[in-house]
Amino acid sequence: MTTEYFISYWGADEDRARQELGLDSQDLYFDSEYAMLDVLEKLKHYPDLATRIETGQLSHRPTTVRALMSYNGRLYEVEDAFGHEYPADTARWVWEEGNMSCDCNRADAIAEKYPDFIYEFTDIDEFGNKDYECGSMIKLERILVDGGEGIILES
């Protein structure tokens, strides 16, 4: 079993770092710890970047969530991509207890895929953008998390 190394980086300095360092992606794989640490050291010079590091036998695939939600008697299925090597249990937590556990973010995800979606607690701001209020009326019926090696978490 070969150990691989992975860095994901994001933030306000992402485009600048990619250009200046000649990186072709924000998800980077390495065969050696030395090569990974070399790039990580360079990324430290960009203060508005966050990084995530993974090591081990890696999938080289993004983690995705498929969520089935219900609201007012209708079912909605959405997909949420979390990036390469993102921990599957963390992606599940985001949907069950984290940022995607409340109506404002769930309504936004549904409306992105279903333009005719109407959520009764929607305000329109001065620019014509929808603003969804928080709540717990949109129910998460089922969640499938694909962590790169097929469906690994299901509820």
Task: Describe this entry's structure for a reader.
The chain has helices at 14-21, 33-43, 88-96, 103-113, and strands at residues 4-10, 27-30, 50-56, 62-71, 74-84, 122-124, 130-132, 139-146, 151-154. The strands form three sheets. The chain has a four-stranded antiparallel beta sheet, covered by helices on one side. It contains four helices and nine strands. It is 25% helix and 37% strand. It has two domains: 4-56; 62-154, no CATH class. The protein has 155 residues and is an alpha+beta fold. The model has no long low-confidence stretch (mean pLDDT 89). The chain is globular.
SSE blueprint and pairings:
Blueprint: E1 4-10, H1 14-21, E2 27-30, H2 33-43, E3 50-56, E4 62-71, E5 74-84, H3 88-96, H4 103-113, E6 122-124, E7 130-132, E8 139-146, E9 151-154
Antiparallel strand pairs: 1-2, 1-3, 4-5, 4-8, 6-7, 8-9
Number of distinct beta strands: 9
What's the order of the H and E elements? EHEHEEEHHEEEE
- Structural class assignment: alpha+beta
Q: What is the number of independent domains?
A: 2
Ends distance:
31 Å
Strand content: 35-45%
Oligomer: single chain
Average pLDDT taken over every residue: 89
Largest sheet: 4 strands, antiparallel
Measured as a percent range, the helix fraction is 25-40%
- Strand numbers in spatial order across the main sheet: 5-4-8-9
Q: Helical element count?
A: 4
Please state the overall shape, judged from the principal axes of the Cα atoms. Answer: globular
Q: Report low-confidence residues grouped into runs of 5 or more.
A: none
- Cα radius of gyration in angstroms: 19 Å
